[in-house]
Amino acid sequence: MNSEAGSKPLLSALAGEAQTPVPFWYMRQAGRYLPEYRKLRAEAGSFLDLCYAPDLAVEVSLQPLRRYAMDGVILFADILLVPHALGVGLGYAEGEGPQLEALDRRDPLPRYEREKFLAHLSPIFETLRGINAVAPATATVIGFAGAPWTVATYMVEGGGSRDFAKSKSWAFQDPQSFQKLIDLLIDTTTDYLLAQIDAGADTVQIFDSWAGVLLETALRRWSLAPISEIARRIRQKYPDVPVIAFPRGVGTAYEWFARDANISAVSLDSTVALGWAGERLQPHAVLQGNLDPQFLVSGGAAMLEEAERILMALSGRPFVFNLGHGIVPQTPPEHVAALSQFIAAWKT
User: Fold this and answer.
1) Whole-model pTM?
2) pLDDT tens for residues 102-122?
3) Which of 17, 50, 138, 255 is the most buried (most CB within 10 A)?
4) Catalytic positions, written as ranges
5) Which range of residues forms the domain containing residue 155?
């Protein structure tokens, strides 16, 4: 880490100190809605080439920070670099989601060779060092990874899915072998995040984008338990580094993560009721969220009114303003500017 929490409002909030003004950053804040990103993306050759080119990835990470002066700068990378580093074929067709070599439960799991795995990901760590070298001293540097359940679904389905039938079938019919895949991803994700912290990440976020497709028992086993174990191992080495979890779509089970996941903060999706979150979650974890990204597309008074509603409900205690999911490509950059200016100036 490149400085103490006291000079970084977002990091101070994650450490449990209420901040005025409320610190903010946005999920997927670097990306296709920015013309400067599209230009660099075209120059890079492919999305993976962009992820693995530290000079370009540093620039992409910093583009939104220059425009909007957020309190956090998140590493530009992708959650599927973990299976890619394990030797799983990965590609991104233009206009489509990721495509991976699908893993069947009868197939041997990828072999984890730690040194080879981390060497493959060394450009990502170089990107973090580059961000630290040029980011403002007040900006919290955010590393991230996908949660084991979400990454496993991509590996088993061979990409995105509507019903996650293959993943659920494997997990339900042969939980012992599916546990081995989850354990592999716990080990690799922990090592990846620890290396990100070594390279300068002030905090890390674990994205469990598909946690919400799991019912209660499966959610505890395949989402909550792995995230909790990764956070426990990070705390063991770096007790002062906050871990944020984003188990999207889990409803009232957010309370399990706030109470039982060894994390400092929980990021909320847009469906979470603010009053309930303030009452049931905020006493146990710092909250982050949760503006619907479509408000950024619409902009105007409706966007600012919803932002104020969130700020009124959750500020005054440790809180980080964010979105309930990532910025979508059709978002006008001027709407992001208007929201950012509003948050930075807002006071109770």
Assistant:
1) 0.97
2) 999 999 999 999 999 999 999
3) 50
4) 28, 32, 41, 78, 154
5) 25-289
